[in-house]
Amino acid sequence: MEFNSEEDAHKFYNNYAFKTDFNVCKDYLNKDKDGVTTSRRYSYCKEGVKRKYEGDVMPKRTRAPTKTGCGTKMVIVLLREIMKYRVHDLILEHNHELHIA
Questions:
Q1: What strands lie across the sheet with 37-44, from one edge to the other?
Q2: Which residues belong to any copy of the FAR1 domain (predicted)?
Q3: Contact, 94 vs 72, CB < 8 A?
Q4: One-character DSSP codes across 23-43
Q5: Please, what sign has the CA dihedral across residues 32, 35, 36, 42?
Q6: Are 67 and 47 in contact (CB under 8 A)?
Q7: What pLDDT sits at residue 79?
Q8: pTM of full prediction above 0.85
Q9: Fewer Cβ atoms within 10 Å of its own Cβ: the N or the C terminal residue of the chain?
């Protein structure tokens, strides 16, 4: 799939995420020397896992885990010949239940 702009890709993936009930974050971005975005990754906001506490003292309050380790993402890259963004990597599988209303 191809998009005319980085923002079009974000809108498309955000609409998909809204319909399947998860949130999207702009994860990383690569730019060339002229400041043109060459690639970007959009990921699920609960991606990754929380680091373990490494201090000497236990924390006063522990919080519920917010990260699920879900690897859902979409990566786009710029095709310089036509100046459009193409989906390079797409993972739609979740490792947890979605709460679809």
A1: 2-3, 84-91, 73-79, 37-44, 24-31
A2: 11-99
A3: yes
A4: -EEEEEEEE-TTS-EEEEEEE
A5: positive
A6: yes
A7: 94
A8: no
A9: C
Q: What residues contact residue 88 under an 8 Å CB cut-off, 6+ apart? A: 39, 75, 76, 77
Contact, 69 vs 45, CB < 8 A?
Answer: no
Take residue 87 and report the two structure tokens written for it. Answer: 């989906």
- The residues that bridge with 80 in the sheet, in sequence order, are none
Distance CA 57, CA 93 (A): 38
List Cβ neighbours of 62 (8 Å cut-off, separation of 6 or more).
none
Task: Name residues whose C-beta falls within 8 Å of residue 48's C-beta, 6 or more positions apart in sequence.
Answer: 67, 69
The reported pLDDT for the residue numbered 61 is 72
CA distance 87 to 101: 28
Cα 33 to chain centroid distance, Å, stands at 24
pLDDT at position 23 over 60: yes
pLDDT category at 52 given cuts 50, 70, 90 is low
